[in-house]
Amino acid sequence: xxxxxxxxxxxxxxxxxxxxxxxxxxxxxxxxxxxxxxxxxxxxxxxxxxxxxxxxxxxxxxxxxxxxxxxxxxxxxxxxxxxxxxxxxxxxxxxxxxxxxxxxxxxxxxxxxxxxxxxxxxxxxxxxxxxxxxxxxxxxxxxxxxxxxxxxxxxxxxxxxxxxxxxxxxxxxxxxxxxxxxxxxxxxxxxxxxxxxxxxxxxxxxxxxxxxxxxxxxxxxxxxxxxxxxxxxxxxxxxxxxxxxxxxxxxxxxxxxx
Length: 258
Fold this sequence. Notes:
Strand content: under 5%
């Protein structure tokens, strides 16, 4: 069990670290440009693989918490099997599903900009429903374990799945809403991945800070700031009638944020 777990962890670290570095390349380069598209797509692939490997890790943890995390057996904070199962099983599985659902939705938003009906493909809908269920399950276990971190993070999944479904079933989205969905979802995927990496890192490097909500909030606050910034810029440009530049993917001012 532990050997399989370590195999998943190795792949998870490689693809996750690669994707989280490329995330900043996509954020800082000209939006709509070749560099943004190329490395942004690789980021999406990395998040999909990373999330899938994380599901494998969390599933093994649920099956046998201490076989997959033998260093917790004598740890003063994590000797409770149910706590390990809750944090590194249920919550990590939820974060993995959240990462996959956001990466898929954000990628699809731009792929389907001229065919909005494709946003209602069964894979996308299933992912959004699944992440809501996983979030509610995490909240339930967080309540049983009295872990406010699990309760707080579960809100993100319900909000994410709900808003993504709302967009998918909107008959006629506002012009260029797909750009807002694209930015929101892919930044959200990075937030989810950074949160999961932070969780594992804190336990190993600073176990006494493993439940510090302020440290867990760092990826969320950073990501939300990026989402709000780009959303407001897109809305301002749309209000100023910059739609033609957006649709062509050109124009020095519009291309910076599209």
